[in-house]
């Protein structure tokens, strides 16, 4: 019984930690006088991901692109990032007790605007572009997650 209580407390702490790292996109002040990125991350189909958080490192920032509590293939992500070029440095995921970090062979990234956010889709699906401007996918996730900023007010990220 003592171990179950300890396990419950530990699980709650892990869940709260993973929640705390995401921006509250439903609040207008999240977008005020800050630079950053908001987008949809697409994980590979049939990917071992149930219950495991996935992250990318973009512009030196670790960004949760798939929260622990979802098994959705497409997930909204957001983060504050300094303006300028933000290199995609890595993608980290776990499967069971195995943790894998992938690093791109070629340099890829997005350009974060001087003022405000930009939007993009980042995809690790086979035969998909790494970065895209999938307007329907982005619009639907903005609506689903009740993003406080109008979809049209956030420009697409430039990529390289």
From TrEMBL:
PROSITE patterns attached to this UniProt entry: PROKAR_LIPOPROTEIN (PS51257)
N-terminal signal peptide: 1-20
Keywords for this protein: Lipoprotein, Signal
Name of the protein described by the UniProt record: Putative lipoprotein
Organism: Fibrobacter succinogenes (strain ATCC 19169 / S85)
């Amino acid at each position: 019984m003592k171990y179950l209580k300890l396990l419950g407390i530990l699980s709650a702490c892990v869940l709260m930690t993973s929640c705390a790292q995401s921006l509250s996109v439903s609040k207008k002040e999240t977008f005020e006088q800050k630079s950053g990125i908001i987008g949809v991350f697409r994980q590979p189909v049939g990917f071992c991901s149930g219950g495991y958080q996935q992250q990318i490192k973009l512009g030196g920032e670790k960004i949760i692109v798939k929260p622990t509590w979802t098994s959705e293939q497409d997930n909204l992500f957001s983060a504050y990032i300094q303006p300028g070029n933000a290199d995609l440095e890595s993608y980290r995921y776990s499967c069971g007790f195995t943790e894998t970090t992938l690093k791109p062979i070629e340099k890829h990234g997005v350009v974060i605007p001087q003022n405000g956010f930009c939007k993009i889709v980042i995809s690790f699906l086979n035969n998909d572009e790494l970065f895209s401007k999938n307007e329907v996918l982005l619009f639907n996730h903005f609506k689903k997650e009740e993003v406080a900023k109008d979809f049209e007010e956030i420009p697409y990220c430039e990529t390289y």
